[in-house]
Amino acid sequence: xxxxxxxxxxxxxxxxxxxxxxxxxxxxxxxxxxxxxxxxxxxxxxxxxxxxxxxxxxxxxxxxxxxxxxxxxxxxxxxxxxxxxxxxxxxxxxxxxxxxxxxxxxxxxxxxxxxxxxxxxxxxxxxxxxxxxxxxxxxxxxxxxxxxxxxxxxxxxxxxxxxxxxxxxxxxxxxxxxxxxxxxxxxxxxxxxxxxxxxxxxxxxxxxxxxxxxxxxxxxxxxxxxxxxxxxxxxxxxxxxxxxxxxxxxxxxxxxxxxxxxxxxxxxxxxxxxxxxxxxxxxxxxxxxxxxxxxxxxxxxxxxxxxxxx
Length: 310
Ligand code: PMP
Hints:
Layout: E1 9-12, E2 15-18, H1 29-33, E3 36-38, E4 41-45, E5 51-55, H2 57-70, H3 79-93, E6 99-107, E7 121-129, E8 140-148, H4 165-177, E9 182-186, E10 192-195, E11 199-204, E12 207-210, H5 221-232, E13 236-239, H6 244-249, E14 252-257, E15 261-268, E16 271-272, H7 280-293, E17 304-308
Parallel strand pairs: 8-9, 8-15, 12-13
Antiparallel strand pairs: 1-2, 1-7, 3-6, 4-5, 4-6, 5-17, 6-7, 9-10, 11-12, 11-14, 14-15, 15-16
């Protein structure tokens, strides 16, 4: 994973500052109790190299502000003004590579007691260069983890709440301990939810199937893009609960998310999925997404915010 150097500037406490100066106290409420929420956004260099195409920027800021609402935050931003701050940061960093944005909102007070009210809230964002999060050229090897996805009434999975990523970390840790790439998480009803940091699709007899929005999953933005593209391509789609055993007999399984993009699965619990090769539908969707993100296709141009970097 190409988590190398952060870019020079970050947005912090209302202004753009050098990344090295964007620091918080060890006593910060969000550090102590996980009372924050984050996002993950990609900016792809346009194929002419002159601009960064930020993917579904206001959809991401909208989701982040919804997560902040779950956490009773009071931030002086709308989705549009938060997006504008991210565009300004892009111009300042003028990346020469594909990049990843980590915006986050957090309870910034240095105070004890896990709670949500009467605490100061802040928004920050930094950027780093990023290629593939998972290697999308080869198939992924997965396990179904024995850790259960947190349910809505414990920590809502639909928001990207910082503390809930302990749950994802346990799952990913188990996958790594077994020499696998990532984990598939079942919800408390035993149905397939998602990966540690990605939504999941299966293909059965030409039908694209994914867990419903109330299946203890993150309301993934790439999931929405995939569903829209599937509709454009005339594919049959079902949003419904998926049984664990359907994973093993599916023709294709793939993950999708901002980080993983579209990553196809070769094995689950040591069983080969389909014929063990990249499936036609995963490839079709990957290609369609990338021609939009690189600015090569005019389809869904509303998904891309083009920022000229001179
Ligand atoms: N599920 C989880 C748990 C995630 O962390 C992510 C990554 N943000 C996703 C799904 C994919 O969401 P998106 O397409 O919005 O990046």
